[in-house]
């Protein structure tokens, strides 16, 4: 990924992949990116949110965005997905209109083409599913769309992908053109906090929770635009969607994930891969926002999700959403459930908000800042040993066990190596962990202890 400071003064060209549902847009996106990032299934409507990644071809970098199928005239969710696609068209420097060569020109293809002819963006018509030379004659039917000469492609097998990318970089605007069309990009404040996440990049914040608890609504509220499709039907988000946002605490990368249900209820292939992507997002994040529906309370599935996040060594900020819909008695009951069912999270912050109205959302950024600071904190070896020695004097380990020396071996999360003279009981290690957490101001961040016995 490109350095954030570089993005602050320049921007990369944006290429949008658009078209009606089930023509192979996500397959093409994965082919160009070089790995399976977008969820692909032979069924319309799988992709709903915009997903964007940086790619490079022959030394030319650009951003590629995958969109949901443009399908006007459908239900309310279809309309929101179509609006996401239209927004990508408006922001793009180049548009790839993907069509299905085995089907021919459809009414939906013609309507998308009519929309694109009214833009001032260059458009390439990509005729997908042209798997052999015998099928290449099928592309000429798409001249009727009025968008220039169509290009044959097989996204599944990779045929003609290089030819397409050659044409893409040929049509991309140069740096001067980009600068002229980039509205008001501010320089990075050198005094602003510049965190580094576990991967060496901008810290990642994963929004996780059961379906329909308001994750995408909160995601859109945090990044300030309707990036993820929001609808009151469970399972709207099928893939992870991420965006870097400049906050008063420094840059953060927010990652919206699919809702995670019990394994027994995950009965379709698309949802299975959605859950896998969500768990991967947790494993690669620096902090997780566990979003809980306050009107439902803390469910068994919320508890299991919290255990999974905690096991990944990721600090958690618990978010009680839809708080404005509860009365005083219900609020008290939910807070009691937090203490009973999520007690293993220790002192993890618990914030009550309304993602829909924005009430209380302003408190999330400082809470995330504190969690990330603790998660990446490094402590001098002398201070670590001072804390360990004081802990041993106040409460010696049983059986003559003793920590001879201690040092912090890693951050993300803080990991301490203890060199001991003999085996140390787990109960005493938990005591020492709490002492390190309190004395070093590590808050609720996970702390790992590695014990090395003297040979």
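^ structure tokens above, recovered residues below v
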């Amino acid at each position: 990924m490109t350095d954030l400071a570089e993005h602050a003064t320049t921007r990369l060209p944006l290429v949008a992949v658009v078209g009606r549902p089930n023509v192979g847009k996500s397959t093409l996106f994965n082919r160009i990116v070089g790995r399976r990032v977008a969820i692909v299934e032979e069924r319309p409507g799988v992709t709903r949110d915009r997903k964007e990644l940086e790619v490079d071809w022959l030394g030319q970098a650009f951003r590629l965005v995958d969109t949901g199928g443009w399908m006007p005239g459908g239900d309310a969710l279809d309309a929101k997905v179509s609006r996401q696609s239209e927004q990508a068209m408006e922001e793009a420097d180049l548009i790839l209109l993907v069509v299905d060569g085995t089907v021919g020109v459809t009414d939906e293809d013609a309507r998308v083409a009519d929309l694109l002819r009214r833009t001032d963006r260059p458009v390439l018509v990509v005729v997908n599913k042209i798997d052999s030379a015998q099928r290449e004659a099928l592309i000429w039917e798409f001249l009727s769309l009025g968008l220039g000469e169509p290009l044959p492609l097989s996204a599944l097998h990779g045929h003609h992908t290089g030819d397409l990318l050659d044409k893409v970089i040929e049509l991309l605007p140069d740096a001067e053109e980009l600068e002229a069309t980039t509205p008001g990009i501010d320089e990075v404040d050198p005094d602003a906090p510049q965190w580094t996440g576990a991967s060496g990049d901008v810290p990642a914040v994963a929004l996780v929770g059961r379906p329909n608890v308001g994750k995408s609504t909160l995601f859109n509220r945090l990044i300030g635009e309707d990036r993820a499709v929001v609808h009151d039907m469970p399972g709207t988000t099928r893939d992870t969607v991420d965006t870097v946002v400049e906050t008063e605490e420094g840059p953060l990368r927010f990652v919206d994930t699919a809702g995670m249900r019990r394994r027994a209820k995950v009965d379709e292939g698309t949802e299975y891969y959605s859950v896998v992507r969500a768990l991967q997002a947790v494993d690669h994040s620096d902090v997780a926002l566990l979003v809980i529906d306050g009107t439902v309370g803390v469910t068994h599935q919320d508890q299991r999700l919290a255990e999974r996040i905690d096991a990944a060594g990721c600090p958690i900020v618990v978010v009680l959403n839809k708080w404005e819909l509860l009365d005083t008695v219900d609020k008290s009951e939910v807070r009691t459930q937090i203490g009973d069912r999520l007690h293993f999270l220790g002192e993890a912050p618990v914030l009550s908000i309304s993602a829909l109205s924005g009430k209380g959302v302003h408190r999330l950024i400082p809470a995330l800042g504190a969690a990330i600071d603790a998660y990446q904190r490094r402590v001098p070896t002398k201070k670590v040993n001072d804390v360990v020695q004081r802990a041993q004097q106040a409460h010696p380990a049983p059986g003559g066990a003793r920590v001879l020396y201690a040092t912090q071996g890693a951050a993300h999360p803080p990991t301490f190596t203890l060199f001991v003279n003999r085996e140390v009981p787990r109960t005493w290690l938990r005591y020492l962990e709490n002492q390190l957490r309190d004395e070093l101001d590590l808050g609720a961040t996970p702390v790992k202890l590695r014990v090395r016995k003297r040979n």
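The longest helix spans residues 76-91.
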